[in-house]
Each structure stands twice: as C-alpha cells, then as structure tokens.
Amino acid sequence: PKSSKATKPLYPPTRRTWDSNYFGVPLQNLVSSERPIPLFIEKCVAYIERIVKALCVLVDPGLDLVVMDVAVNAVAGALKAFFADLPDPLIPYPLHPELVEAAKIVDYMERLQVLREIVNKFPPVNYLVFKYIITHLNRVSQQSKTTLMTADNLSICFWPTLMRPDFENPETLSTTKLSQAVVEDFIRQSHYFFYGGEVADSSSSEGTPPPHHCHSMVEALLPLQLPPPLLETPTPPL
C-alpha cells in the first residue's frame, strides 16, 4: 500500500524576545473576568476608530492630517506587533487546517456555517479578543469610501499576525490566499459570526477612491515590518 506523505508540523515563526511584562506574554495573563480584553488593545482600537471618524467627518478645519497619519501608523503597527509577539497566535494553530479546508467550500452560506462552527472552538479568551478585534476591523471597513480600508485590504494586512503561519513551510505558502480569505470572511460577516445577525451582502462594493488626503491612511495597514527589540535605556546617575 501507498504510504501517505507526512505533513510538516505548523511550527511558529521566530519571535522577538521582549523584556516586558506585557508584549510576548500569554494572552490569558493579560485578561480577567472584569477585563476580558487587554487594555492595550482597547486603547489602540479606540484611537484608530477616533482617527477614522475624524477623517470621515473633518469637523475641524485645522485638523493636521499628516500628523494624524503618522500617529495612526504607529498605533496600528503597535497593535499588529502585540499580536505578532503573543507566544501562541490569536487564531490557534490546531484550527488552521480546518479553516483552510472551510475556505475551499464553494457554497458561500455553507462556508460561513462551517467557519462559525470552527470559531466556536476557540479557547474562551481567544474567542473574546478575536471577536473584539474582528468587530473593530468590520467597523473600520464600513468607512472604506473615505479610507480605502476594505475588508479585503484589512484581511491582507492582519491575517499574518492573527494566524502567524510559518512562511518557510511550502504547504503554508500554498494556502496563504485561503487563510487571507478566511479572515476576510470573518471581517465582512462579523455580525453573523458573533452577534446572530443576518449575512451581509458580500457582492456589495465597499467604497470608491477617497479624497487624496486619505490615501496615506492605508500605509498604516501594510503588512507588518517588525522593528528590532527595544533596548533598555540606562538610568542616568543621580
């Protein structure tokens, strides 16, 4: 009989080492029953959504868009770095094969139903944080007419940090588009997955090109380029 080819394990990519009690710490160490979402994530999400809202409304004629772009770039990068440096990815490795197989389902409603069954297998802490960040990304995508941050763009930029695949594994490289499509479905259909809502129209356009001053906002969502670990600043002598 033909022997089946052994599948290479999903080894996590090399992570940075932080001398920190927050970055690189297991997610369950950062939450409690009173605060199920890490404060750092809450602060980043609140800031990004405030900036996006300000760009859409532009109630302040003196608003410095260049400064805002720089600031939101830094916050979005820090948020992605937080997820990239978790000891285990927010989307658990054991569920990656199931998610990839679900992405291959042609019938859209059947695919969403299977994805909903899989997300319900997340550990409780991961589920609540994943629900929170995906809901945030869905809200951001609703303003894509102004910011160009569509569900597709957001999924391209966030899926590598949420899933943390091993890009040295050829099998991983062959499924990157499927993994990205899974995260896009979660973003686009967050109300269905997490709030019992109806399925959103997946064929509807998410927006037209924004005014020229908003184009650089997309830079905040480019795939994460991690900086080197921060060096400890020596304490000056008294």
Low-confidence stretches: 1-9, 207-235
Shape: globular
Total strands: 0
Radius of gyration: 19 Å
Estimate the mean pLDDT confidence: 79
Q: Give the SSE string.
A: HHHHHHHHHH
What is the structural class? mainly alpha
Individual helix count: 10
Relative helix content? 40-55%
Distance between the termini: 76 Å
Proportion of β residues?
A: under 5%
Main pleated-sheet profile: none
Could you walk me through the main structural features you see in this protein, from its secondary elements to its overall organization?
Helices cover 49% and strands 0% of the residues. With 238 residues, it is an all-alpha fold. The longest helix is centred in the first third of the chain and has 20 residues, at 65-84.
Give the key terms.
mainly alpha, 49% helix, single chain, 238 residues
